[in-house]
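Tokens in:
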């Protein structure tokens, strides 16, 4: 990122016109696995609310996550193409993504297909940065992204939207939901389709098929619940997303066609009981699945399917007015299937966790311990200790230390012998230790957040020197700083998020692949009585991708909303206003300037 652009962004933020999140007083659950006000969390947490989602006009989850501090998203083409999420400079497999508390990630690749999550079904997103394995187990080395689907609220009502945009983009959704006495329900469906652009840049890979690589997605979600009384209830939820994307093979025959069909699904059944006045119990039985099938010239070429069967029993016990004790057990069984005959196709883990959060006036504490016992590689322990000090009514400082781990994937451990390579069943989990110091300021609409962190990751799994298997070879160190500054005045709001970090291989000092040292997002919005206009400026420093260097880039997006009649409104979005030519992954195109306009009916 150019220095003069960074200075301009910081001066704009310092002018006293910055975006103040309405979510500062929101209640969040991800940072401690129990309800907390956002201003009380000891882990750096941010919220993307339903209002933020509607105002953005964006189509998918990756487009929203790019606005968050410490978040970097790469994509191999346009909407629906393979995405990688890097949180605080960690690997794409180091962020745990939960959908209503349910794991939906792949046990073969170790990542979650966030590119298949359309926003029409999403109510809110909570992003927790820093090691959180002591709360959720494996993968949470960089943090946790928890996505919540919509649920019925208020009087039963319908909503609908439709729109179109560049590259023959079409988008439509409909839903119906609400509350009836002690029951609530929601049913929503959506469709997204685009002709897209060629995913592979033919200037880099001349042998690739230069045709447009489109995407087609159908999603649905359904929820229902019944409250027996104010404290006891039962909830059932379903979610499904099926996306079909065309992609190019940079090394194949140019006339070949390649398609991939990806399905994400989950169901959950939960029962919440107030067993005693100070004791709340929650049982959950759930299943999350990831199924990806690839086709070449219409014939199936590969399939990888993961099924995550999950059970959890969580108990929160109030210890007076100051503290909450957390006790729980979980069981996870992972099964893989498809076209690859893994040497082992199932494993399980039994987990036990405990925690305490306390608010003692000016002092806050949080402590968490967890043990995960896997059937294949053994036991992994993790922990967190956090402290917060309320210096004044406006200022709060906090510090935490934590340990986390990532379980080896089925690809790492059980891939069958193929072309001289096979998995290594003797792998150990990757382990990380994180230190963080932060400060929060909030008063009269103004807020400031600053975090310094250092995350050291050992026993990183990498290919050995003979490329014959995987071993615990590498070590990484990530040191960084996040700054978020915002205020809102007279309907004008701006927020600036700046991330400065050094993600590097601890042995060689080389910058980690596809991760920039500088990220900055400036968001501007002006609200009127019947509408809103806004803009986003994203910038990134240079990144390394293999033996190539990806240039720094800056992208400007515009958004607008107009409610021209009761319950009826228009929304519009322009992405990449100045038609910036850049790459998020070497050899893959990004979208140029694109437009979208939609019509919405909301109760």
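Residues out:
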């Amino acid at each position: 990122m150019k220095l003069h652009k960074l200075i301009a962004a910081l001066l704009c933020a310092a002018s006293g016109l910055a975006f103040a999140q309405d979510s500062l007083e929101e209640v969040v659950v991800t940072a401690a696995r129990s309800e907390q006000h956002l201003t009380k969390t000891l882990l750096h947490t941010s919220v993307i609310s339903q209002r933020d989602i509607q105002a953005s006009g964006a189509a998918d989850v990756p487009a929203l996550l790019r606005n968050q501090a410490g978040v970097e998203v790469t994509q191999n083409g346009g909407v629906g193409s393979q995405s990688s999420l890097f949180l605080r400079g960690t690997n794409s497999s180091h962020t745990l993504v939960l959908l209503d508390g349910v794991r939906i990630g792949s046990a073969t690749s170790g990542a979650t297909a966030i590119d298949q999550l359309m926003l029409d079904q999403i109510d809110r997103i909570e992003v927790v940065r820093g090691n959180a394995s002591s709360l959720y187990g494996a993968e949470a080395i960089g943090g946790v992204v928890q996505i919540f689907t919509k649920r019925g609220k208020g009087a039963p009502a319908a909503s609908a939207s439709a729109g179109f945009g560049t590259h023959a983009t079409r988008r439509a959704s409909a839903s119906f939901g609400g509350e009836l006495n002690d029951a609530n329900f929601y049913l929503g469906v959506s469709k997204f389709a685009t002709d897209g652009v060629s995913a592979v840049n033919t200037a880099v890979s001349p042998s690739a098929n230069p045709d447009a690589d489109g995407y087609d997605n159908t999603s649905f979600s359904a929820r229902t619940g019944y409250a027996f009384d104010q404290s006891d209830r039962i909830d059932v939820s379903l979610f499904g997303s099926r996306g079909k994307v065309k992609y190019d093979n940079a090394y194949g025959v140019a006339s070949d066609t390649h398609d991939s069909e990806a399905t994400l699904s989950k169901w959950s059944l939960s029962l919440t009981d107030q067993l005693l006045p100070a004791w709340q119990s929650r049982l959950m039985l759930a299943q999350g699945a990831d199924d990806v099938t690839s086709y070449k010239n219409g014939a199936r070429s590969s399939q990888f399917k993961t099924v995550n069967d999950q059970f959890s029993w969580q108990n929160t016990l109030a210890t007076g007015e100051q503290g909450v004790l957390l006790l729980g057990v979980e069981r996870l069984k992972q099964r893989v299937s498809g076209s690859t005959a893994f040497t082992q196709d199932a494993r399980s883990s039994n987990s036990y966790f405990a925690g305490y959060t306390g608010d003692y006036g000016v002092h806050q504490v949080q402590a968490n311990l967890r043990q995960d016992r896997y059937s294949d590689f053994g036991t992994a322990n993790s922990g967190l200790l956090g402290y917060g000090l309320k210096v004044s009514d406006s200022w709060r400082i906090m510090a935490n230390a934590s340990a986390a781990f990532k379980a080896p994937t089925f690809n790492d451990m059980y891939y069958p012998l193929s072309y001289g390579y096979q998995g290594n069943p003797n792998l150990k989990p990757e382990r990380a230790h994180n230190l963080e110091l932060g400060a929060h300021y909030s008063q009269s609409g103004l807020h400031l957040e600053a975090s310094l962190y250092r995350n050291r990751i050992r026993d990183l799994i990498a290919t050995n020197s003979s490329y014959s298997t995987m071993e615990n070879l590498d070590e990484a160190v990530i040191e960084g700083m996040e700054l978020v500054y915002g205020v809102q005045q007279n309907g004008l709001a701006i927020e600036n998020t700046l991330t400065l970090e050094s993600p590097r291989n601890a042995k060689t000092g080389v910058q980690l692949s596809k991760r920039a040292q500088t990220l900055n997002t400036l968001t501007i919005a002006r609200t009127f009585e019947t509408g809103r206009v806004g803009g986003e400026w994203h910038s990134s420093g240079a990144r390394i991708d293999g033996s190539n260097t990806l240039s720094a880039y800056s992208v400007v997006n515009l958004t607008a909303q107009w409610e021209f009649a009761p319950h009826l409104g228009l929304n519009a979005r322009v992405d990449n206003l100045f038609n910036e030519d850049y790459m998020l992954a070497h050899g893959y195109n990004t979208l140029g300037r694109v437009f979208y306009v939609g019509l919405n009916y909301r109760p």
